[in-house]
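Board notes (copied after class):
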Amino acid sequence: MVKPINGFSLKVAIETAVRNTLGKQIETEAQQFLAKNYLFFQKKGIYHKVFIKDIVFIKSSDNYCEIYTKTEGNFILRSSISRLAEVLP
C-alpha cells in the first residue's frame, strides 16, 4: 500500500486479499466446504453464507451461473456449471 492510505485503496486491498484467500480455499479445500454444508457468494461487495440445502436451482449461461436460493435471493457466479458441479454434492 502506498502512504498516505485513503479509505478507497484500503477497501480495495482488503477485498482483493479476501477474494484471493477464498478463491484458493474453494479450489484447494472444496471438501471442507462441503463438510460444512455451505458456500460463500459475493453480491454487491458483501459475502453471503449460503447453505447448500437452501439452493433451489442453478441456471447456466456460458461461463456464468445464476444461483437461486430460498433465503438469500439470487447470485451470479463467474464459473461454468461443470466447475460448480465439482464443488456441490
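Comment from the instructor: The longest helix spans residues 7-28. The CA atoms of residues 28 and 86 lie 12 Å apart.
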